[in-house]
Structure prediction request, 309 residues.
Amino acid sequence: MGYTRWSDDSYAHLKSSRAGASVDDIFTNNATGKASDLMLPYGVKMRESRDSDIHPESLSIAVYLDVTGSMGRIPEILVREKLGALMNTLIDHGIAHPQILFGAIGDHFSDRFPLQIGQFESGTEELDQWLTSIFIEGGGGGQHMESYLLGWLFCARHTSIDCFEKRGQKGFLFTIGDEASWNTLDVEALKTLMGYPEASMVTDKQLLEEVQRAYHVFHIHINEASYRDSPLVLGYWRNILGERLIVLDDHNAIAETIASTVALIHGVDLKTLLSTFDENTANTVRNALAKVDTHVAKTGAATKGAFKL
Prediction:
């Protein structure tokens, strides 16, 4: 997938057409009460990110959005306001051919649709299509844990990306939410959700190791509401991801934070990135990426595909 181009004009038209739309008007699957069949992972073999004539050096970026509880507002913000900031920040700083897969994460113990998967896309209408196809679950288990590791599972075992397979250049994977992850997926979950005829229990650390072969993996903790500065939640992420945990104090800067992380790892100076944002956004992104920036500066890792943690 990913054979079309981003267009600011098309996005401006989409934004204006939704000026008075409700959440259910935008996310039409909410009205049906179920996720789109096209986004369910059961039996899916592969999502592909491919080079093409218009995207000769594609870069794969998977973005998994927690859609439980208050986190359901983030897909809405991206649709209404921030998809342009995400794409333009990438393109304007040398990521000429981003291909983004939007997915949604819930709780595999308590939610009906704990994993929803779009396609890798570059064009405005296609990106918007998969974003607005997300079913906003709104539930969650109330146990300070969601199933973020499902995103690692899917990208590790069910994606094929040319940036890595052709050029040895890792893609990027972001999970976004305000809770910790469950640390295991049992056999029943793998069979029921993924359609595996046979399965063995897997842990978060096993899946992280698998997915890191082809992806730079980050988690963005939305540091608001119930789990603001939570030692339990932040402790989990620091233990498993170290500097790849990004703590974001304002969810409104989510698009700029994602794009800036990718550009930073690809060698763009953080000051250069921040200079393109308004003061509030720049301060938020600076604080969120301080540890990533420090690591890059210390190790000299900001070269194409060379970032390691």
